[in-house]
Amino acid sequence: MNLKSHLLFTFYTIYVLLVKVMASKGKVRGLSGQYPLVQNVTVTEGGTVNMTCRVEYNDNTSLQWSNPAQQTLFFGDKKALRDNRIELVRATWSELTISISDVQLSDEGMYTCSLFTMPIRTAKAYLTVLGVPAKPEIDGLKKPALEGEQITLTCSSQGSKPAADLRWFRNEKEVKGAKVVNPMGKTFTVQSYLQLQVDRNDDGVAYTCRVDHVSLSQSPQQATEVLEVHYAPRVEIRPTHTVPQEGQYLKLECDSKGNPSPDPVMWTKDGGELPDLDRMIVEGRDLTFTSLNKTDNGTYRCEASNHLGTSSAEYKLYVYEAPTTPPPSTTAPLHPSTPESTVQLDSPASKPSFTGHRDPNAVGQHGTDHALIGGVVAVVVFVTLCLIIVLGRYLARHKGTYLTNEAKGADDAPDADTAIINAEGNHAHTEEKKEYFI
To answer: pLDDT by residue (tens digit) across 374-414?
Structure first.
């Protein structure tokens, strides 16, 4: 046997002995229950995650982390893959912890921790990467929208993993939309549709699309759009007094709601122009009477217009007579919401009188009412006197004494029957006497 063969045999013998020794150590470790321990982890895209592998007992055997492509990341404290995002956190005989920063969706998968015993023992941990949904966008909004028009709002969000949920809110109240999910590789694009038939109540309303996702638990994404709705005006007249009286201050408020705003409005009386602009003052949309009188009676009309249409309202004004007893003195009104009656001081005697022009026919009207009442009273008295006279004459004609047959013969009769007979006999006897006398 030459020297070369001898060396080969020696190396082979040493190799066999080493294999047997390692095999015996592996059996001892297997009996001791030595296995690497790992956990599945979840991280948001762009975040940082730590991956830890531990063993309960280790006799100076190395631990190793490998990625889903079976590339070694760290063997003990030795970095094997050139990736600046992967760093060593802790390396001991019982623990190997590494960190991965700026995690991408491509980093998701099954990672392997290996304990180099004989045989090699491994444990697998799955890394889940959440795709963060992009800020939602709302499309389909027309500015301005017209009342009665039907529009569809579309909310879209991309890049979510798993698919995000989209929710609609009208101001603070949730409304239901129709959701559609489209896969885009490892992520999803989510859309939600909201159909509206807009009216004037939607003008100025905020519609919000909110994205709900597990990766946005702290700060949900949302987008908001405010509707602008154009609509024809609607008009309503509101008086400051329900029972207007002579001499009062009165304001007719023309509430004209429309978009665009119907300014200015037009006031008319009985189909024509206002007759007395000194006392009837138009301020903005309001018509003010500084001092009412009977000539102000009539129908007042407020008309408002914009490019979508025209609307009007009417108010029939009837001015009532002022009370005969003047109310306590007050100052002149400084604002439309002043008391209904205004009093001014006209003379040094400070005698209160109502402002404005009094109806010249007011006294005549009082005289007519008194004459009518007097006439009714006279007729009643006359009729009563006539009834008394007729009744007196009737009673006078029927005055006298009347005797029954019983009464005529009752003087000498013991009972009623005898009295009747006596009465009849007396009557006959009377006739006989009359006949005899003749």
So the answer is: 888 888 888 888 888 888 887 877 655 444 444 455 555 56
Highest mean pLDDT among 7-11, 151-155, 214-218: 151-155
Whose tokens are 């095999």? That residue is: 23
Q: Which two tokens stand for residue 233?
A: 């005006």
Query: The tokens of 402 are what?
Result: 């009347």
Strand pairing class (286-289; 280-283): antiparallel
Which amino acid would we find at residue 227? Answer: L
For the stretch 353-373, what's the b/e string if a residue is b when 16 or more beta carbons lie within 10 angstroms of its beta carbon?
ebbbeeeeeeeeeeeeeeeee
pTM over 0.85: no
Phi-psi region of 433 (alpha: psi -120 to 50; beta: other; left: phi over 0): alpha
433 pLDDT exceeds 80? no
The C-alpha atoms of residue 26 and residue 8 are separated, in whole angstroms, by 27
**What's the 3-state SS for the chain?**
CCHHHHHHHHHHHHHHHHHHHHHHHHHHHHHHCCCCECCCEEEECCCCEEEEEECCCCCCCCEEEECCCCCEEEECCEECCCCCCEEEEEECCCEEEEEECCCCHHHCEEEEEEECCCCCEEEEEEEEEEECCCCCEEECCCCCEECCCEEEEEEEEEEEECCCEEEEEECCEEECCEEEEEEECCEEEEEEEEEEECCHHHCCCEEEEEEECHHHCCCCEEEEEECCEEEEEEEEEEECCCCCECCCCEEEEEEEEEECCCCCCEEEECCECCCCCCCEEEECCEEEECCCCHHHCEEEEEEEEECCEEEEEEEEECCECCCCCCCCCCCCCCCCCCCCCCEEECCCCCCEEECCCCCCCHHHHHHHHHHHHHHHHHHHHHHHHHHHHHHHHHHHHCCCCCCCHHHHCCCCCCCHHHHHHHHHHHHHHHHHHHHHHC
Among candidate residues 195, 197, 206, the one with its CA nearest the CA of residue 149: 197
Q: Whole-angstrom Cα distance, residue 365 to residue 374?
A: 15
Peptide bond into 239 cis (omega under 30): no
